[in-house]
């Protein structure tokens, strides 16, 4: 029998990362392709997974970690379908329908759930039973993983849109969210920072005032995550979080909000081991996608 | 073989409800006892479960839904132990240690997780895969149940202490929480309402201004629950929620905060079927405790 190979897709807004791994997780083949429309991009994806296994083994499953919004309920008739997106040619696109001809088990989840799964498996959240991974970039999103399973309710979580304490005397900016104006994403994502301060945090001559403001909004999310999910660790990644001083400021602001209520998050005032940067960098998403593929195989075998 | 009987304990701050049920859930014996110290109350509990089964069958398991804070991690060496509480004689009290001599499987969770489980099983959340049950009384707490399992991270959730948007111009009250001052519980629980308005919501001559204010704080929680747990339904119970007009105001305030972002929570501007009152009233806790007992039996059998 040919060696089983794991397929992984990280479907991003600007590029797709395609990877083929052996059972030990070593990459056998990898390709990056631009995200065009589904009708243009998905045939390239099919071609990769049809041709790349040749000589290495046999494709056994594919996991997909994709931009959304996305139907991630395996019991839903539209599982694996991108619902409504402004991205041309992707509304209603179904990863399941596109990939079905490959004849292998498939599992689809969001990009942030994939990254959370990757970090929990082998990154900064390794060993955590409950891990919350938040990305702060063009948008803000959080994936929560429990026992290496991404959590969800009627849909994936939408942490970017939580209400935060917006003191307009201190920060008169109205916010950029087309739905809420000054929700978390409207005030603290990359575009909102540039709209107020004219630059990204890491490019400012004196980022201190902006870091103080943005860390407070992000701490409202961190505090809500602690109180509503009680994760063993919070990972904060994405472009905005690379700004010097932002993670330490987020720790201080979160400790201030918790105010000693959660005993073990009080001893270390900067929460150094609790709020951390990603361990896998840009590899979190594809690592999580590969784990989704392994879970798809395990589920197929359990059902057999 | 004697008929198996299900034991259920709802351990409240002022009273314990003890129940013995047959396999169909019919109550065979029930007793209420005052909550004194553990050393006074627990022997009464043991006596009930030792004597009440006589002539009806044989005790098969006990489920406990208790006030907290409580260690609810079955893998912890202090599982089922009340951690630190101002309640005299209960800090460090272990339900497991007290009940072990009865020789039956035990399962312990918080009162609000028990009520959430009861409502999900046969109350207002029946049929929901993910149900969030919030109680608003002397304190505020939320239990989230997924597939009839209470969810938790490193500990049970603590929704009462989330930060909320506190506009001091509109509401100059400092809040009553000894940790945070103006967290949700500090501003919106029963004692905070009486401290500001001199009375409970349902006893005020004109409750409208207070209802408008309190519903806004509770809507901050409801919105966070929607975005961070995506429950199929939100149940809001407890003494404060019985005030006329509060549930409809909470629906309106939550719809205003979501602002159409979650498509299916937009069609009905008052979210009539999404934010609801409990279906089991005061029976939710004991119903959930009995289900915990049934789950303890199922886990014992699965491990055998």
UniProtKB/TrEMBL annotation, chains A, B:
Assigned keywords, A-Z: Magnesium, Metal-binding, Zinc
Keyword DNA-binding: no
CDD domains linked: ASKHA_NBD_ROK_BsFRK-like
Reaction(s) the record says it catalyses: D-fructose + ATP = D-fructose 6-phosphate + ADP + H(+)
Superkingdom: Bacteria
GO molecular function list: fructokinase activity; metal ion binding
EC number(s) stated in the UniProt entry for this protein: 2.7.1.4
Co-factor requirement: Mg(2+)
InterPro entries hit by this protein: ATPase_NBD, Carb_Metab_Reg_Kinase/Isom, ROK
PANTHER family cross-referenced by the UniProt entry: FRUCTOKINASE, TRANSCRIPTIONAL REPRESSOR MPRA
Annotated protein name in UniProt: fructokinase
